[in-house]
Amino acid sequence: MKKNVVFWVGVKNEKYSEKYGGWDWMDITRKSWEYWCKKHDVIFFPMEKPIEEDLTRFRINWQKAIYCFDILDEAGIDYDQIYLVDGMNIVKWDTPNVFELTNHKFTAWRDTDNLGWTYKSIVGYNDFFDGYKFDKEKYFSSGLIIFNEQHKEVFRSFKKMYHRNIDEFVDLQDRIVRKGTEQTPLNYHLQMNNIDINLDLPFSYKLCHIHRKEMFKHSWQLNEDMTPFFIKYGHVWGFSGLPKNQRTDIISQTWDLVKHNYDENHFLNKLAHKDEWCKTTSRKFKEDILRIFGNRKDLICLEIGSCRGDTTRVFAECFKTVYSFEQSDENLKYMKEKCSDVDNIIYSQSDVYDNFEIPDVDVVFVDAGHSTELVKYDIKRFLEKNKNMILIFDDYGQRDESIKKAIVDSNLPISRYIGEYNGFTCTNMADKEVTFVAREGVICNMD
Amino acid sequence: MKNIVFIVDITLKGSQRDVGRWAESRSDPYVFCTKAWQKWCDKNDCELFVLNEEVLPHSTMPVSWQRYYVFDLLEANEIEYDQVMYVDADTIPHPDCPNVFEMSDRKFCFVHNEGSYDWILRSIENYSKYFFDGYMIPWCDYFDSGMMIFNKDHKEFFAKIIEFFHDNRENLLEVESKWHAGTDQTPVNYLTHIEGIDYKKLPYEYNMCDMFRKELLNDDMTFAKWGWIYQYNSIPNNKNDRLTFHWMKKTYEYLWGNL
Fold first, then answer.
1. Residue B172 CA: distances (Å) to CA of A53, A286, B29, B120, B181
2. Looking at the domain assignment, is residue B220 inside a domain?
3. What span, in angstroms and rounded, lies between the C-alpha atoms of B88 and B64?
4. For residue A213, which residues of chain B lie inside 8 Å, CB to CB?
5. How far apart are the C-alpha atoms of A142 and A328, rounded to whole Å?
6. Which DSSP helix (H) or strand (E) runs through B144?
7. How far is A233 from chain B (nearest CA, A)?
8. What residues contact A47, with CB distance under 8 A and at least 6 apart?
9. What ipTM was predicted for this assembly?
10. CATH code for the domain in which residue B22 is found
11. Could you list the residue range(s) of the whole structural domain that residue B10 is in?
12. d(Cα A69, Cα A79) in Å, to the nearest integer?
C-alpha cells in the first residue's frame, strides 16, 4: 500500500564537520521528524550516505534531488507523496499532516528572505538556461519540497541534465555564480517544464532565516509568554541563514525548550485532548497552564467538573494539591487511573451545586455547569470566599458565549487568554463539528 | 469610470516626534512618489487623487486613520471611480508595473507585510488582548496597509473602520503611544477578518517593504530589477529621513528621469 514518505537528508561529512560546528544538530532534527512521521503514519526515510563519493562534483544537495527517486525505488518503498526535507529543519510536534494540504501538486514555498542573493543566483544561471525568461515570483526554496510519482520524469531529466553538464555546473556553483547548489537550476528546470507548483501554503510551514525575521524574540511587551515567536507560530523551523558553525548550539538550545513534546512517555502525550474528546481541554490549553503556572507548588487548586481527569493531571503537575470534584462514578474511575502516577490529588465524588463547601484554595478551574447563570453563581461564590482567587475557564470561545457572558456580567477582568484560537474545531457529543469563535479559555483575576 | 490611485500627502507643522511621518522633515521625498504615480496613472488610464489637507484635525484623528474617508472624499469631490488603490506616500512604482487593478478579482487586495515579525507579532498580540478579546488573525496573511485595492463594495467596511476608531479613540491613542506597534494597520487587519472581508493577497513584488532587510536596497538598484512597487521604510541609520530622500530621488531618476 502506498504511503507518504519524508525523505530526510542528513549526510554527515567529516570533512566539513568543523565548518558546521559538528553534526550533533542532525541527531536532534532527525528526532523531530521521526516523531512527526510516526504520528501521521508516514515513512521516515533518512538519506545518510551519499550515492556518489566525490562530494565536490556531487554535492549532497544535488544528490538528494537527482537520486531521490532511485534511492526510494531501490529500497522498495511504495511511495505516494515524497516530502524532501533538508536536515537543518525541525518540525513542530503538532504540525498538521502537510501531505493533506498539497492537492497532490508539486508543493514548495517561496524564498523571499534574501532576495538580493536570489536575484544574483537567477541572473547567474540565466545564460546556462539560454536566457529563459524566469518568473521570479515563483522562485522557491528546495530545502523543503513535496512531490509525487508524476514528477519522476522531470527529476529524471534533471539528473540527465546534471550528468551531461556537470563540469559547467560545478564551475558555476563554485567559481562563477557562487549562489547555491541545485536550488536555482531546479527552479529553472521545473519552470521550463511547465510543472504546476503549489506555492500557496503558509510560510509557517517553512520558517527559515529566523534571525532575519526577528523571530527568536518573544512577546516582550506583554511579557506573559517567553516562548520565542518561531516556536509559537511556526510549523517547520529552518535553521538556515545563520552562521553554520552555530547551528548545533542554536538547535540544541531550541531542543531543550521543546524536547518533552516529542517524548511519548511525557505525561502530556498520554492525555486526551479536545481535538479527540470534546469534553476535555486542548493540548494547547494544557501547555499554556503548564507554562503559566509551571511549578507553583505554593498554590492549592480546586477543579469542579473534572470529567476524566485529563486536565486534572496537568494541575497536579503545577500545584501543591488539587481538590478534584466530579459527579460521575465512571469518570472518577478513569481519572484515578489517568492520574495514578501522582499523589497530590484529593478526589471527591459529589455535586458541586448541592451542599458544596468550598475548600481553602488559591486557584479554581471553573468547569462544572456551563450555563451563564451557573457560571455566574460559581464566580460569585468563589470570589466571596476569597477575592484574590484566580479563576480559570474553559470553553470561553464556544459559539453560544455562555461562559463569556457570565464573565462579562460579573465584571471579572481577563488576565490571560489561553488554549486554542478562534477557528479551532472539534466534534461534540452529538457528533457535530463545532468551531470556536474566540479563544478556548481565559484566566481571570491574576496579576 | 476610471480607477483611482489615492495618496495621502499631508505636511504638518511640528517635529517628527509630535506629528510622526507627516512632519515637514519627512515629507520632502514624497514629491517623487506623487510624480511617479501620476506618470503611472497616465500610462494606465487611471486618475491620481492626492489628499493634501486633513479631513479632521490630527489631534482628533491621526492622519494615518484618515485614509479610510476615501469614499467620502471621492464623492465630495464628485470623482467617478471604479476601483481605488491606496498607496503610502513613500512608494514609487516601476514604469512597467502591470495594471494591478486587473489582478484584483474585485476583492479587497493587499500585500503581506514581510519584515520584522517581532514588531508584527507584538502588534498582533497587543491589539488582540486590548481590543479584540483575544481573537487571533492568521499572521501569515498580516498585511501592510500602505497598499490596498478596494471598490464600492467596501464602502461599508471602511465606514466600520472609521466607526471603530471613534468608538475606541482614547484607547487606541493610548496603546499607540505606549506600545509603538502601529496606528491603523493592525486594527484594520483584525477588522478585515472579523468582518469576513473576502480578500486577495498579492505577491511581495506589489508592495516591496523593508527592502534593506531583503538585501535589495543597494547601488545596483536590485530592487528595481526585482519587483514593481517599492516602499522605502525600515531603512537603518535613517537619520532625519535623509536616506528615504536619497533612495526615492535616486529611484525616480533611475526609472522615470528628472523631476
1. 63, 32, 29, 17, 11
2. yes
3. 10
4. 116-117
5. 54
6. strand B143-151
7. 8
8. A7, A8, A9, A10, A11, A63, A64, A68, A71
9. 0.95
10. 3.90.550.10
11. 2-113+143-167+198-255
12. 10
- Quote the CA–CA distance of A381 and A375 in Å, as a whole number: 10
**Cβ–Cβ gap A112/B226 under 8 Å:** no
The three cell numbers of residue A278 are 470534546
Model pLDDT for residues A212-259, shown as the tens digit of each residue: 999 999 999 999 999 999 999 999 999 998 998 999 999 999 999 999
CATH number of A3-261: 3.90.550.10
Name the class of domain A272-444.
Answer: alpha beta
Confidence grade of residue A190 (pLDDT, cut at 50, 70, 90): very high
Distance CA A208, CA A89 (A): 9
B92-142 tens-digit pLDDT = 999 999 999 999 999 999 999 999 999 999 999 999 999 999 999 999 999
Nearest alpha-carbon partner for A261 in A286, A293, A298, A225: A286
Residue A112 to residue B222, Cβ atoms within 8 A = no
Number of domains in chain B: 1
Q: Where in chain A is the domain with CATH 3.40.50.150?
A: 272-444
Residues in chain B closer than 8 A to A112 (CB atoms): 114, 204, 214
Q: A226 to chain B nearest CA, in Å? A: 12
Task: For residue B3, list its beta bridge partners.
Answer: B46
* Start-end of CATH 3.90.550.10 domains in chain A: 3-261
* Phi, psi dihedrals of residue A416, rounded to the nearest 5°: -145, 145
Name residue, grid cell 489615492.
Answer: B6
Asked, for residue B61, whether it belongs to a domain, the answer is: yes
Rounded Cα gap, residues A57 and A78, in angstroms: 30
- Residues A46-83 pLDDT 10s: 999 999 999 999 999 999 999 999 999 999 999 999 99
Relative orientation angle of helices A152-164 and A60-74, to the nearest 10 degrees:
130
User: Would you call B135 and A439 a contact, using CB atoms and an 8 Å cutoff?
Assistant: yes
Q: Find out whether B33 and B9 touch, Cβ atoms under 8 Å.
A: yes
Residue A224 is placed in which grid cell? 506573559
CB-based contact B117:A215 (threshold 8 Å) = yes
* Contact (CB<8Å) A113/B121: no
Amino acid letter, residue B233:
N
Cell matching residue A116: 538580493
Chain B residues touching residue A422 (CB < 8 angstroms): 135-136
What are B57's three cell numbers?
Answer: 484635525
Q: Which three cell numbers stand for residue B4?
A: 483611482
Closest to A90 (Cα-Cα) out of A6, A198, A171: A6
Q: Are strands A363-366 and A321-326 parallel, antiparallel or unpaired?
A: unpaired
Round to whole Å and give the CA distance between B65 and B116: 22
CB-based contact, B132 to chain A, within 8 Å: no
Q: What is the pTM of this model?
A: 0.96
Maximum pairwise Cα distance, chain B: 51
